[in-house]
Design goal:
disordered C terminus; TIM Barrel; nine-stranded mixed beta sheet; about 300 residues; disordered N terminus; 2 domains; alpha/beta; 11 helices
């Protein structure tokens, strides 16, 4: 009996040691890290020397060698792909269309098709994308459209995706990512933030300020020392917009950037710290950015006068 018990303990230790050796360390981003989102740019358009901690890039648009160059300059890299829709022109698009009942109806606002995430055949295809992220040296992934169950058109399917289906799929994605040493972001999906936070390493949000829902992140991700990378779409010279953003994120310790929604390129963005940045100086920086002017130059006074006239 004692021998059997001792053997069991030894066997368990061997298994645990083996698991520890084979498990890969997952990057843990920290609250306060700076970031930029560059989804609509070729590699040659990206400045590898940009002074931010994190760069979000498209998984398919850049080579492994280019991502290694970005990492050499001190950047952590988040790689974007859609996990709930199929975008035209992706290298693996044909593989999705070959599977019955996987590619569903077209989205109303985008040239993409909803994917039936209840179809188990989606998993090998997503695993291929995760493996590609590993091959390209991504530190983390940003799977988009992980809340398709909320879509009115998806609700009309004969066998619609339920909230629990979505949660199960999102947790599966997280598990597979972490197995491969990839951190994973929860993109939007505010309704499930509290439930899914334990399975994700950080959050990316585009619209919590619109619906005054940013507080959900304070009591989930931020509370558990996980960063929230937030993007607000609009102009810093628009007082109503900036006041709304400031009211929503003030004191929440989010990493906020402001972008033109039609230009997710590298240069056209501003980092926004609501506790420090007022509207006039944010607008000055925006005008300088759009005009290619150094904010610290003598032209600052001219820009300041222009801003005062605008506001």
């Amino acid at each position: 009996m004692k021998f059997s018990f001792l053997f069991s303990i030894i066997l368990l230790n061997i298994i645990l040691i083996k698991q520890a050796k084979t498990s890969k360390k997952v990057w843990k981003p920290k609250i306060g890290m700076t970031w930029n989102w560059i989804l609509n740019a070729n590699s040659e358009e990206i400045d590898i020397n940009e002074k931010v901690d994190i760069l979000g890039v498209d998984l398919f648009d850049h080579s492994a060698d280019f991502i290694k160059e970005l990492k050499k300059n001190g950047h952590k890299i988040i790689c974007y792909f859609s996990a709930g829709t199929l975008e035209k022109g992706r290298p693996d698009t044909k593989k999705f269309f070959k599977i019955p009942n996987l590619v569903m109806n077209k989205m109303s606002d985008w040239d993409e098709y909803y994917l039936n995430i209840k179809n188990s055949a989606i998993k090998p295809l997503m695993i291929n994308r995760l493996d590609l992220a590993v091959e390209k040296h991504c530190d983390a992934i940003e799977p988009d459209n992980v809340d398709i169950y909320l879509s009115e058109s998806v609700k009309k399917w004969r066998d619609p995706v339920t909230r629990q289906d979505q949660i199960n799929y999102d947790i599966w994605l997280s598990s597979e990512a972490r197995k491969r040493g990839l951190a994973i972001a929860l993109k939007n999906d505010i309704d499930n933030v509290i439930t899914l936070e334990p399975y994700f390493d950080f959050a990316i949000n585009e619209d919590c300020y619109v619906y005054e829902e940013c507080y959900f992140y304070s009591y989930s991700f931020i509370l558990n020392k996980k960063p929230v990378l937030a993007v607000a779409y609009g102009s810093s010279c628009d007082e109503d917009f900036l006041v709304k953003v400031k009211t929503s994120v003030y004191g929440r310790r989010f990493s906020v950037i402001i972008k033109d929604p039609n230009r997710l390129v590298q240069k056209n963005y501003l980092s926004y710290v609501p506790e420090k940045d007022d509207m006039i100086h944010m607008c000055i920086k925006e005008m300088a950015m759009l005009n290619g002017t150094n904010v610290t130059s003598d032209k600052k006074n001219i820009l300041l006068k222009s801003v005062i006239i605008l506001v």
